[in-house]
Amino acid sequence: MSAVVVQVQSLRYTPAGIPALNIVLEHESEVVEMDTPRQVKLQLRAVAFGAQAETLSRQGLDAVCEFHGFLTNARNGKGVVFHIQDFSKT
User: Fold this and answer.
1) Which H helix or E strand runs over 72?
2) How far apart are CA 80 and CA 60, in angstroms?
3) pTM of the predicted model, to two decimals?
4) What domains lie within the chain, and their CATH numbers?
5) pLDDT, tens digit, 9 for 90 and up, residues 11-64
6) Which among 31, 65, 79, 80 has most CB atoms closer than 10 A?
């Protein structure tokens, strides 16, 4: 998923000592649905662990990156969270 980091919380550590970073991503694109162009824009809560978290904590906001990972339920059961497994600047 191509997205921009629009919000970054402070780097934290899990009880096991693993770096963790909560961020908010913003994705914007155009897709065709039933032969009609459609603008897609959304913000998505995301989390990164380990080296990915440390690297992302040093990145500036508003840089377009390509993110790879998976969606899962939020811990509190409200909404979804994108778990970042890899990313690269585009």
Assistant:
1) strand 64-73
2) 24
3) 0.89
4) 2-89 (2.40.50.140)
5) 999 999 999 999 999 999 999 999 999 999 999 999 999 999 999 999 878 878
6) 65
